[in-house]
Backbone:
């Protein structure tokens, strides 16, 4: 890996914890919990990571998450990601978790949250890696289920900074969740939403106007709508782009076809993230490398992406300036 990219101070803003479960850890937790897997070995599971679209990925994603039962499982999953992130220059991360994936299986909400929070706290103490949690609603489930999840989570509201919207995009527009997002906003939570990955640009409009999101997760199809691009540029709405994920799920056939370079040229506040790195072939630094090589992005462009990541984060102004100062210090020595 390019040492410059690995060391470049950066934030990661689009990371699904359940999507960071490596096959080895899935098997280790399954054995610990006595959970049977439909794969004979780690290699057999890894070979199954052949996706044709978002839904085919989600099917195996939820199967992998099924091994998670106890607080320690969620700690181990989160800690494994944080160690990798720290080694790749991540100074701040804002991670998604999907409580419905687990509570539907009878896992206690507290076990999910406590395991994740304990790992985030340990990473702050050990690495100085700051973090925020974003509670996501599964959009393939009902709006009523999302509302019930928010009600369940509100006693722990101080544990997360925002709510988000993920899972199957097509056929589940942001407007479906307008009421529950309104509730979240009313209690002081920020909002984000996946939009414009497989779904059309209209989903991005809905996320902005109906869900009042602070940033768009993915958003790569925005370029299909010049009026939308103009708005995103004018308002500097961040876009949390996940290049390797987009290629793996056939949003683009090759990394060379990705629109990230055009997005930056248009003045969009794009960032680079890893999405579900275990399944998509790379963590955040591998994503930076992929666009550097595949799109011919210069070091200046990579620095722009890193700088964007801090500006797009939910860090306090003082913390943001501290992280940007770390970036400047790194560049002065690079």
Residues:
């Amino acid at each position: 890996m390019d040492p410059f990219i690995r060391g470049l101070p950066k934030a990661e803003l689009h990371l699904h914890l359940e999507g960071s479960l490596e096959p080895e850890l899935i098997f280790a937790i399954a054995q610990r919990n006595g959970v049977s897997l439909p794969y004979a070995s780690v290699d057999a599971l890894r070979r199954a990571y052949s996706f044709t679209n978002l839904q085919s990925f989600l099917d195996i994603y939820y199967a992998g998450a099924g091994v998670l039962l106890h607080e320690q499982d969620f700690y181990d999953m989160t800690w494994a990601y944080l160690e990798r992130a720290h080694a790749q220059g991540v100074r701040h991360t804002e991670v998604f978790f999907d409580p419905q994936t687990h509570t539907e299986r009878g896992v206690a909400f507290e076990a999910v949250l406590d395991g994740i929070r304990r790992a985030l706290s340990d990473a702050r103490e050990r690495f100085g890696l700051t973090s925020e949690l974003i509670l996501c609603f599964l959009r393939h489930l009902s709006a009523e289920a999302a509302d019930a999840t928010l009600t369940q989570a509100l006693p722990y509201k101080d544990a997360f900074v925002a709510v988000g919207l993920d899972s199957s995009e097509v056929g589940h527009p942001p407007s479906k969740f307008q009421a529950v997002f309104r509730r979240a906003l009313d209690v002081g939570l920020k909002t984000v939403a996946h939009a414009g990955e497989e779904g059309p640009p209209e989903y991005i409009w809905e996320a902005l106007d109906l869900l009042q999101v602070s940033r768009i997760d993915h958003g790569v199809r925005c370029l299909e709508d010049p009026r939308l691009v103009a708005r995103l540029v004018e308002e500097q709405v961040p876009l949390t782009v996940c290049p390797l994920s987009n290629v793996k799920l056939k949003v683009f056939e090759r990394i060379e076809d990705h629109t990230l370079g055009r997005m930056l040229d248009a003045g969009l506040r794009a960032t680079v993230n890893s999405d579900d790195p275990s399944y998509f072939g790379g963590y955040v630094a591998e994503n930076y490398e992929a666009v550097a090589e595949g799109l011919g992005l210069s070091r200046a462009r990579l620095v722009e992406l890193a700088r964007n990541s801090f500006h797009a984060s939910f860090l306090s102004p003082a913390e943001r300036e501290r992280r940007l100062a770390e970036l400047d210090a790194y560049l002065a020595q690079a």
About this structure: Strands lie at 10-16, 90-97, 130-138, 162-166, 190-195, 215-218, 238-241, 269-272. The longest helix spans residues 109-127. The CA atoms of residues 194 and 217 lie 4 Å apart.
